[in-house]
Amino acid sequence: MTHPRCPGAADRDRPRERLFQLGPEALTDAELLALLLRTGGSGESALETAGRVLVEHAGLAGLARCEAHELMRCRGVGPAKAASVHASLEMGRRVARRRLQEGTPIRDPADVFRHFHPRLRDAQQECFLVLLLDGRHRLIREELVSRGTLTASLVHPREVFRPALRACAAAVILVHNHPSGDPTPSPEDREVTRRLARAGEILGVAVVDHVVVAERGYCSLREEGGPAFAG
Q1: Measured distance CA(124)–CA(120) in Å, rounded
Q2: Which of 1, 7, 10, 90 has its CA 20 to 30 A from that of 109?
Q3: Which residues pair with 133 in a beta bridge?
Q4: What is the C-alpha to C-alpha distance for residues 143 and 97, in angstroms, rounded to an integer?
Q5: What are the residues facing 58 on neighbouring strands?
Q6: How far apart are CA 64 and CA 74, in angstroms?
Q7: Which pLDDT tens digit goes with each residue over 44-54?
Q8: Cα(49)–Cα(40) distance, rounded to whole angstroms?
Q9: Hey, is 132 helix, strand or coil?
Q10: How far apart are CA 101 and CA 91, in angstroms?
Q11: Is 158 within 8 Å of 152 (Cβ atoms)?
């Protein structure tokens, strides 16, 4: 009778064999990354290179924030390996993302957070988006308004409401991220919200909420009771 072989020291150096024997959930972050790299750098195994790359980027969270060209600065990681890792991280984000489909009703800011968190939590720049809604607060589509530090000059009412008017939207939800990981609204966030809410009143397009998305959660300026949403 044959018995299952217990993984020994040699197997611990072979992530592929461990994956087939124990399943991917049993692998360490370094082992998973080694499977993507396939080979190591000069004088290193793939596992050793993977471990070093993770240390250099402060773990998987830091690695997820890297662009492909940044990964290529790591010794032993060329264009093919960087592209493979970058593509795999993006696939993970897409699987995790709960997509908002056209016609989906937006019930609360938690819906917005679940949709945008996988996409925005690792972004190194602030991205400002607007969700266009119909009269029953169902999604028409989303629009990217700007990238960069949130200021009144970057987020101008015409850039926010032009697509809303073209789509005959009845309302909009403003969304942007904080790369710092802290969703607490800044004074600039509040000022931009007030400015856009006033413009929406004039144009007949209600600003339903402004949701700040970050690694450590989200903040709804409407739930917070900001002056832009008074009354």
Answers
A1: 9
A2: 90
A3: 139, 171
A4: 17
A5: none
A6: 14
A7: 888 988 889 99
A8: 5
A9: strand
A10: 19
A11: no
Q: How many Cα atoms occupy the beta-carbon half-sphere of 188 within 13 Å?
A: 12
Separation of alpha carbons 228 and 231, rounded Å: 9
DSSP 137: S
Residue 212 DSSP SS3: strand
Q: In the numeric block, which tokens belong to residue 140?
A: 């028409």
| Both tokens assigned to 80 | 């093919």
Among all chains, which residue has been given the structure tokens 């696939």? 91
Domains by residue range for the chain, with CATH: 9-96 (1.10.150), 109-229 (3.40.140.10)
The pair phi, psi for residue 75, each rounded to 5°, is -60, 130
pLDDT digits (tens, 9 = 90+) for 135-183: 999 999 999 998 876 554 568 899 999 999 999 999 999 999 998 889 9
> How far apart are alpha carbons 199 and 185 in whole angstroms?
20
The torsion region of residue 99 among left (phi > 0), alpha (psi -120 to 50) and beta comes to: beta
Measured CA angle at 90 (ends 88, 96), to 5 deg: 105
First-to-last CA distance in the chain?
A: 77
Residue 133 CB coordination number (10 Å): 23
Instruction: Specify the residue for token string 């169902």.
Output: 138
pTM for the full predicted model: 0.62
